[in-house]
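ENTRY TYPE: paired fold submission
RECORD: A
CONTENT: sequence, then structure tokens
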Amino acid sequence: MARHGTAISQRDSSRLDSKKISRAWGDSEAIVRPTSKYVATLSPKEADPALLAAKSSKQRGVGAAFVVNEPRRQVTASDGSSSTALERLRTTSSASSSSPRDASGDHTPSAPPPFVLRQGRRFLRDPTSPYPLPVDLIELHRQTLRTLMFMHIHGAPFCSPCIEETPPKKVLEVACGSALWSSICHDYFRKQGHSNISFTGLDIAPLATDHKLHGLNWRFVQHDLRNRPWPFNDGEFDFIFFKDTGLCVPEGSFEDDPLKEPLRLLKPGGVLEVWESDHLFRTLLPHPTIPAGTPEEIVEQAELSGTYIISPGTAFATPQNKYLLDYNAWAQQAFEKRHLTLVPCALTGWAFSSDPDAIGEIGSRRIAIPFGDVRWEQEPAGGASVQAKGHIRGKSVATAGKQASTEPKVLTPDQAAVRHTALMTTIHFIEGLEHILKAESGKRQDEWDRWWAGMTHDLLEQNGTFHGECLELGAWWGRKM
């Protein structure tokens, strides 16, 4: 097992390149600039504060190198001109950017455009939609970084061992956005000799490029997830993938049977997999133990990525950072008004266990990613049983952990980049919620701008999360009975 940024698995050493990124959402060089495939990754401490160098290791066919700009309202084009994210966003639907014309070339009456501008960001116009985030290039950029970070940590574009053993034939990506996941999954299977796989993307907005132009067996279906049934036949797919869909549907909308619709679309024996991240931030308490029975491969992946495996028994506390405390308070009020949950991971775990007769072979993985250097990582564990190296290859971890090293933990460049990516995508997430958070804070625009400047300075320059504030994410999977 290779360490410190080398391959977790030697079966596939491919990397993403600029074509892969550009085809995900068109001309995006203004925000994400893929660098040389084998460029060395800078530590956030070594890099300019305005830049993040994030590189994925050669993990089972997933990897990339990026230079990422800090949150900002405008982006600068490669020709030096300045434009808003709305002006630079490309979609596959001409109807969303222009009115239809008749044969003579005149405009014909049409429905109002599906988007509306708020403070320079593009949002869904539908007043009944609970979705609080923008639908623009900056948000696609954030989602892409989060997706690549998930894949880096998990080691592949999926976690279910069933998919690894028996590749699917028909795949549905729910709330697909740019459909980068489908594109990467296609390449992952193609490099293993499985090219006869069709991919379908489902989303309320047509944000994905036409992936058929890039070799995928691809189709896009535009549909609001709140409206059931979804426009597919029973048993149409053998793999359905969700990622970060907790903000698309109000909490409790399908409380009686939350997995009924995706299970309807799955063939018997098909696999459902869900990746989620929580939007309420907590502090990971010192030296968490490895949950009993964690496979050795997962432990090593966590060690390589500088993350922590968590369970319901892992100890957390409220954030010590005052800005994240502010955010938590305002977000709770704003999300309650929209009937959204801040902790979709908890609901997802419950959904998978709610109907054992319908779904079996259930597995899960929960991860906490600190936002930077953590003070207690520099201190000895005092003999406590903690997450540490030295596990026996090929066996599961039957105890709660191993003795900690007395050496202070020094992050590798890849580990530091993973944590900084978690922090940057969280800052972008808060920025995208400005329109509802500012309303709950009661601040005027100038007061909000001062708060925002203080938060970004504290988090990016002062290591304001050194107590252990973190991003919590999870993956769940199961097979239809």
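RECORD: B
CONTENT: sequence, then structure tokens
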Amino acid sequence: MAATQNTPTSCKVILAGTVAKSLSVEISEALQQVAPLLVSFLANTDPAARMYADWTGKTCKENGLRFELREVDREELEQHVLAANIDDLVDGIIIYYPIFGNRQDQYLQQITDVSKDVEGLSHRYIFNMYQNIRFLDKEKLQKSILPCTPLAVVKILEYLRIYNTILPYGNRLFGRSIIVINRSEVVGRPLAALLANDGATVYSVDVNNVQLFTRGEGIKNRRHEVIEKPEWGLKDCLPLSDVVISGVPGDSFKVPTGLLRDGAVCVNFSSEKNFGPEVKEKASIYVPAIGKVTIIVLLRNLLRIVQNRKGLESQPAKAVEKPGTIEEAAPQRKGSIEYNF
């Protein structure tokens, strides 16, 4: 069973390590065929970036993957990335941001070879994600890569059975109402799009406004659309939401517990605690952090891009999925597109 803390019996606390452990099994099985090399670049003094690099290296070692941390000057980072792009010994590349803290960081994301981009930040991957295009090829053997943190939240919701596996593949969040508090381009907005593309009604909330991400009535649209909700705020969205996902930076924000639905599922992806301790009195499930799942998802992305490069030879569409999960191949519903995470 999932790990719990000393909480009231009405609320179960799910630790990120529990979810990560279940995903590690898939990685171990896939490594019977390949042991790829992940090269990471650290070109800043951000303590959070250093911690993320250390965690990634530790997790790689625990799961039998090769990891190499290269610390470089930020002015030389571009040339180091370009060299890694053409190095046949390098299977995947990750850069720990921020580097410059401006559009130059976006440029660095785009010069990373798409076939080695384990973070899923290349334009082609981002375009596919928003357009609900789930494969890179017509044969549907090479899967598009998704950004790690949004995908980590998806994997947690899958673990919690928020995804309804009885429904057709690609529509398994139909009937769910979800609020995502954070609309950053890194996590919040991509996450809202992913959840809406899988059928959920998603309220995307930031400091300025509320947007509704939806595939329309009866999820008849192929991809999500965005509808402005003027005058709406947390007071309007929270009581409607089965799942509450929050990632607001800083320690001053707290999700108003009084507005939560009884039995809501609450997930925190901020480095700060967006939920007060009283959340356990109202939530049915609470996930206080997702860091360990994010790193495991990064490693799964690494395996995926290696398998994608091998093409038909390694059957990438089946390599790291378990039967019964959201990733298992399923008949495609008319009007939907298969998206195996």
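NOTES ON RECORD B: The radius of gyration is 20 Å. Residues 312-341 have pLDDT under 50 and may be disordered.
STATUS: closed
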